[in-house]
């Protein structure tokens, strides 16, 4: 099996060298860039599976790079690694399409665990016997094509980030069942996730806005318990 390629983008050479060395030690193929321009060239040349990217770059910012990657390479993982630790910065990073957000100073073991968790979501195991059967999930007028990684509501496409897709998939796979924040984190972010459970509320909000733009609410909050997705005709 080929190694996953990680692109590390940071304008601090000591951070780049440290992250590249540790990720390389853990079996990843690592390429590096110290600016937005060099990151773009590395993307074109190496087609990485995941980016570890700083927000602040000398010729731009990581948010811009994230937007570009999400538009052209929706299946590429993005982990922000930055000194910007305000709650608004974290929310901005996830809003722009980041899969995870780690603040400096950081533990290398945590970074490796987060990178592996994102890659597991992006590259699920294919060691089963034969290819998985194609399924299209439906709840009310929402459809999720797992083979094409496409969501639709009332026949209209709904553009989702990878994390939003995984969240919607988990909700639809458990339609009518109340899922706690912890259950959602374990499935969507994995048990390695060490951040706040509020990330679930944030992504539920993103998902609701996109779905509710095309129809009534189908994702329901059960205060003190969690969330469920169900047909509009079903009782709570």
TrEMBL record:
One of its GO terms (biological process) is regulation of DNA-templated transcription. The modification 4-aspartylphosphate is found at residue 54. CDD domains: REC_OmpR, trans_reg_C. Residues 134-231 form the OmpR/PhoB-type domain. InterPro entries: CheY-like_superfamily, OmpR/PhoB-type_DNA-bd, Sig_transdc_resp-reg_receiver, WalR-like, WH-like_DNA-bd_sf. GO terms for cellular component: cytosol; protein-DNA complex. This is DNA-binding response regulator. It comes from the Bacteria. GO terms for molecular function: phosphorelay response regulator activity; transcription cis-regulatory region binding. Residues 5-119 form the Response regulatory domain. It comes from Nocardiopsis sinuspersici. Keywords: DNA-binding, Phosphoprotein, Transcription, Transcription regulation, Two-component regulatory system. SUPFAM superfamilies: CheY-like. Pfam families: Response_reg (PF00072), Trans_reg_C (PF00486). Residues 134-231 bind DNA.
């Amino acid at each position: 099996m080929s190694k996953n390629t990680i692109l590390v983008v940071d304008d601090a050479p000591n951070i780049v060298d440290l992250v590249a060395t540790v990720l390389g030690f853990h079996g990843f193929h690592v390429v590096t860039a110290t600016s937005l321009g060099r990151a773009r060239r590395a993307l074109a040349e190496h087609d990485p599976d995941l980016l570890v990217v700083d927000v602040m770059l000398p010729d731009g910012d990581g948010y811009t790079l994230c937007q570009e990657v999400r538009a052209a390479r929706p299946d590429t993982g993005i982990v922000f690694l930055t000194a910007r630790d305000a709650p608004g910065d974290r929310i901005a990073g996830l809003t722009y399409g980041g899969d995870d957000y780690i603040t400096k100073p950081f533990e290398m073991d945590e970074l490796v665990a987060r990178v592996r968790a994102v890659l597991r979501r992006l590259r699920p195991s294919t060691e089963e016997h034969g290819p998985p059967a194609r399924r299209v999930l439906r709840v009310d007028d929402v459809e999720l094509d797992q083979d094409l990684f496409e969501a639709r509501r009332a026949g209209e496409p709904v553009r989702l980030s990878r994390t939003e897709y995984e969240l919607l998939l988990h909700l639809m796979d458990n339609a009518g069942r109340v899922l706690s924040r912890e259950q959602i984190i374990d499935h969507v972010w994995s048990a390695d996730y060490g951040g706040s459970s509020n990330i679930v509320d944030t992504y539920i909000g993103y998902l609701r806005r996109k779905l509710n733009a095309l129809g009534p609410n189908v994702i329901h909050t059960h205060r003190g318990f969690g969330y469920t997705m169900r047909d509009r005709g079903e009782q709570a």
